[in-house]
Amino acid sequence: MKTDWKGVFPAVTTQLSEDQSLDLDATARHIEVLIESGVSGLVLLGSLGENQALEPEEKRRVMEAAVRTVGGRVPVLSGVAENSSAVACRYARDMERLGADGLMLLPAMVYKGDARETLAHFRAVARASGLPIIVYNNPLSYGSDITPEMFAELADEETLVAIKESSGDVRRITDLINTVGDRYVIFGGVDDLILESVLLGAQGWIAGVGLAFPRENQHLWDLATSGQWERAREIYRWYTPLLHLDIGAKFVQKIKLAVQECGLGSEWVRAPRLPLTGPEREETLAIIRRGLETRPAVPAQTT
């Protein structure tokens, strides 16, 4: 199965009201801003989308609204982060019926399987629908490392078309290419390693902080992928303190706070997460506001 997936695919937040209910209108408004910035696709209901904190029917409502808002302008993918293979397969089939263009598949949550079990889970979901899938590898957060050798074993599953590489070790990109060649499209999944990831062969970026700074985010990508390294480094050096917000246990709160400070949404999160308070909030705001004060001039639109 071939796709034309490449470029920036932001991991869109699920916008909430102060009472923690879904704010689908706010999510739709944010999607419009992201599309206007030039993104190549959108991933709803990933980690930043607070997938695991949402009820099953809420996830489906989010995806219905996203598919309706986008109207085919860019691919719309849904994260799949379920506790069992059976539920993940059911969710994949539901996303196909709702009109999603693809999936981003995480390992099964709660139980951390060994390599044999992890491979079986991915194979089951790969065969549950006809949708193309990005496999999300984030061993630091989810406890399961999908190694290059495991991706070689999965290469016969046609619906597995891409990898979101978030191991935190950019050497993994070269190891993947050396092991599986161009079998999968590789997406960088760690914001503050993206320039290095592009240099080593990543063709896409599942972006986080770009939700708050979409124009600058897209401009950096365009510079890097067109070989304009000197200017790309300049933008990256400005951007890196902000990109560090994508790291750590409270990355959702920090990025949602950045989205709010940039006037593109609100910081409300679903419990057990709570908005930042105290020195942690002030430190995060200082980084965001410094970024806003010093943000570089970029084109109004990029292609």
UniProtKB/TrEMBL annotation:
Looking at the UniProt entry, the stretches that span the membrane are none
Q: For pyruvate, which residues are the binding ones?
A: 206
Does the record carry Lipoprotein as a key word?
no
Q: Which Pfam families match?
A: DHDPS
The EC number of this protein is 3.5.4.22
Q: Which UniProt keywords apply?
A: Hydrolase, Lyase
Q: Give yes or no: UniProt keyword Hydrolase.
A: yes
Which family is it part of? Answer: Belongs to the DapA family.
Name of the featured protein: 1-pyrroline-4-hydroxy-2-carboxylate deaminase
Species this protein is from: uncultured Armatimonadetes bacterium
List the taxonomic lineage: Bacteria, Bacillati, Armatimonadota, environmental samples
